[in-house]
Amino acid sequence: MSDPCPNQSTDRTARIVVGVGGGIAAYKACQLVRNFAEGGDGVRVVPTESALRFVGSATFEALSGHPVSTTVFDGVDEVRHVRIGQEADLLVIAPATADLMARLAHGRADDLLTATVLVATCPVLVAPAMHTEMWNNAATRANVEILRSRGITVMEPAHGRLTGPDTGAGRLPDAEQIAELSRTLLAGRRLEHDWDGRRVLITAGGTQENIDPVRYIGNRSSGRQGFALAEAAAQRGAQVTIVAGNTVALPTPAGAEIVPVVSTEEMYRAVQERAAASDLIIMAAAVSDFRPATQATSKMKKGSDDGALSRVELVENPDILRWSVTARDEGEIPADTVIVGFAAETGGDGHSPLELAQQKIQRKGCDLLMCNDVSGGGVFGQARNAGWLLNREGEVRDIADGTKLDVAVQILEGVDELAHDRD
Ligand code: CTP
């Protein structure tokens, strides 16, 4: 296959190099390449020799629209590793095997991929995939440390079923997760691995309050922002627990524990059980303020029960955010635990969404509040978000429009910056 127009991206698209290591998960790189190509990005695939034992070069060539080679001795006249490395806006290696990471850590340049990495000055994202024992091995840990210390973003691998019957840490994250993190890096964000050992509790999604076995009171929250916060915290090394109400289907962030709940009462109990063991609590869930006073055990009929369905009596739910602030004041939660609330505001009564959020943070007493303007009906279920992060001292940080992961990364940076005197 000839190469008439390498890196044929336009100004609005990125030039992404996907390096593929020789592991079973190499087949997932196909989805990643496709994801980038469909997004309009110019993609080059640089596999290792052993990657081609798992996926043939024809597949990568067809998906990327570019020829594939593994060695610097192909196309010597154009010095491919220099050209591909220099022109890249982002280099993503997925899957990265233990051997490939060892070669990268030692600055080897014994094939086209490792030589390209040495040339590249763009952000580099490494998505490892291997058996748990290999991931936990001291040699691999040391190599990961070296790569991170050089500014390379090494993703935490996902937990789950590995090749063969065993389960553990080491799975390649979903192509969607790698692509989203790639876009965050392309947007100029950095994810340091600096929250090792930090315990983060996040509520996400919407709560549902049952009226009867088939009907409920709910809301439009998708859980995307809460899961993106969990992903960002996990990639920074934190130990993350998500108390998840109703959400759309979302991949589990690396190593995160998911506690599924349905109602506000269940979410309240799940938070109460875990809050004292958390360094940071982020309440991104859309919590139902009220629930039916009683829940019918059989389906309510619209024409019977004296029209009870048209007059469902509501009682107020506990305010989980308020509870956590009070519990901290009373010493049930450590004083240095940082508590972050969310506020989806439309504005009204002459007040802008930001003004309402400034009143809400004083009322709720949390340390930080992330405010979204939902007046146009956006945000819920959308892939993007924006807003302001504020503290009780009146400082406001703009959270720039971006994917929900991009916004999550900015919120966590804001936690570092605006949660004064708490750690
Ligand atoms: N929240 C909570 N428990 C509730 C209601 C809300 O923990 N019963 C949390 C949400 O997770 C969010 C924050 O409080 O972090 C603000 O939610 P919001 O619904 O905006 O607060 P309300 O007090 O219900 O304010 P409003 O009068 O605007 O509905």
UniProtKB/TrEMBL annotation:
GO cellular component annotations of the record: phosphopantothenoylcysteine decarboxylase complex
GO MF terms held by the record: FMN binding; metal ion binding; phosphopantothenate--cysteine ligase activity; phosphopantothenoylcysteine decarboxylase activity
Ranges for domain Flavoprotein: 15-180
UniProt domain DNA/pantothenate metabolism flavoprotein C-terminal: residue ranges: 196-416
Keyword Flavoprotein among record annotations: yes
Stored SUPFAM superfamilies: CoaB-like, Homo-oligomeric flavin-containing Cys decarboxylases, HFCD
Annotated keywords: Decarboxylase, Flavoprotein, FMN, Ligase, Lyase, Magnesium, Metal-binding, Multifunctional enzyme
Annotated EC: 4.1.1.36, 6.3.2.5
Record-level GO BP terms: coenzyme A biosynthetic process; pantothenate catabolic process
Cofactor: Mg(2+); FMN
Gene3D superfamilies: CoaB-like, Flavin prenyltransferase-like
Residue ranges, annotated region (Phosphopantothenoylcysteine decarboxylase): 1-199
Textual note on the cofactor: Binds 1 FMN per subunit.
Pathway(s) of this molecule: Cofactor biosynthesis; coenzyme A biosynthesis; CoA from (R)-pantothenate: step 2/5; Cofactor biosynthesis; coenzyme A biosynthesis; CoA from (R)-pantothenate: step 3/5
Segments of this protein annotated with the region Phosphopantothenate--cysteine ligase: 200-423
InterPro entries: CoaB-like_sf, CoaBC, DNA/pantothenate-metab_flavo_C, Flavin_trans-like, Flavoprotein
Protein role: Catalyzes two sequential steps in the biosynthesis of coenzyme A. In the first step cysteine is conjugated to 4'-phosphopantothenate to form 4-phosphopantothenoylcysteine. In the second step the latter compound is decarboxylated to form 4'-phosphopantotheine.
Family of the protein in this entry: In the C-terminal section; belongs to the PPC synthetase family. In the N-terminal section; belongs to the HFCD (homo-oligomeric flavin containing Cys decarboxylase) superfamily.
Name of the featured protein: Coenzyme A biosynthesis bifunctional protein CoaBC
Organism: Corynebacterium doosanense CAU 212 = DSM 45436
Record gene name: coaBC
